[in-house]
Amino acid sequence: MHFEELKKYHFILASKSPRRQFLLKDLGLDFEVVTRDVDESFPEHLKAEQIPLYLCEKKARAFDEELNDNTIVITADTIVWIDDHVLNKPENYEDAVRMLTLLSGRMHKVFTGVCLKSNEKMILFYVVTNVYFKKITPEEIDYYIRNFHPFDKAGAYGAQEWIGYIAVEKIEGSYFNVMGLPLKELYEELLKF
Amino acid sequence: MHFEELKKYHFILASKSPRRQFLLKDLGLDFEVVTRDVDESFPEHLKAEQIPLYLCEKKARAFDEELNDNTIVITADTIVWIDDHVLNKPENYEDAVRMLTLLSGRMHKVFTGVCLKSNEKMILFYVVTNVYFKKITPEEIDYYIRNFHPFDKAGAYGAQEWIGYIAVEKIEGSYFNVMGLPLKELYEELLKF
Q1: Do A166 and B27 touch (CB under 8 A)?
Q2: Which of A28, A161, A175 sits opposite B171 (nearest CB)?
Q3: CA-to-CA distance for A68 and A65, rounded, in angstroms?
Q4: What domains appear along chain A, each with residue ranges and CATH number?
């Protein structure tokens, strides 16, 4: 399928993330944003990419009853993975300090799972990026939390915020994956759909 | 110096690039944008990082007469480097096709040189990022050039445009460097200024 043929589909992006909406728009697809409240818990034995894959499939299945032939729903879930554990959203100031201190001076992995689903077909895939933080100081951590309140962010940081600008030494892989939507891989999977 | 102490300086960003203005703003510094027309030619024997370092110093020196003690001027220059050559802005449609065909399926390097200059001191530094393009089709190249007219872009592509979204397989290094302003390194050099 050529890119321009994709325009025959009706796309639903099931994500409240303004960043994902912005990225998908820039890819040049028309879509509407429809979100369903989905319980974001997952079985404890899941690890690494299994978690976002499980959650994005769950988010997509919430649309099972309402898809028709020309509709594709797109869902995504992003996690921060370090020391064999997932970092969720921080509960309070101290929890955010703990997470950023853990990330300081080290590499962590960001996994995004993506689900594309019509009433006939489903594609699940994930992308992983290695992110290297420089050592950040307690003053930088405090400044960031006080000014940016990253309590809605997995791992207590946004790559497109002050801390991402000053702390990320290098990445290996897709930057858009770190932002929450791996565009190149999404584009390739859509062409194969 | 702590980040908050930087606020005592008056910063001038000497760049017309909206992307650089946007990134510096997000870093949290107050600055004004002042540009001078500078001849962007450079000696032919210069290679790789020598080119943006030469050009950003030239851009900063255009402010020599008007800096005072608390003013720091920030300039930057970004180039695309492949096969031991720099890719400039494409002259026309065919030239853009030639450049994007050259980048297709291969790694190239993006160098950004940055100059920080007061009336007492100058810091010059550069950052390099490896960018890997997947193989792109003639249809994708044609679609991109027709819709995005990348004639003001070195190497005929913008990382934050459609072609960047679909073609960039991975990067090694700083993404903000590819966008034209390596924020983490800029922040570190400013703290040392």
Answers
A1: yes
A2: A175
A3: 9
A4: 3-192 (3.90.950.10)
- Which residues make Cβ contacts (< 8 Å) with residue A178, sequence separation at least 6? A110, A129, A131, A159, A171
ipTM over 0.85: no
Write out the two tokens for B14. 């000497």
* Residue B1 structure tokens: 């110096």
User: Does A191 contact B at CB distance below 8 Å?
Assistant: no
Nearest CA in chain A to B4: A143
CA distances to A51, B143, B167 from A54, in Å: 5, 35, 28
Tell whether A169 lies on the interface with B, counting CB pairs under 8 A: yes
Instruction: Count other Cβ atoms within 10 Å, centred on residue B4.
Output: 10
Q: How far apart are CA B125 and CA A175, in angstroms?
A: 23
- The rounded distance, in Å, linking the Cα atoms of B1 and B153 is 36
Model confidence over A24-77: pLDDT tens digits? 998 888 999 999 999 999 999 999 999 999 999 999 999 998 888 789 999 999
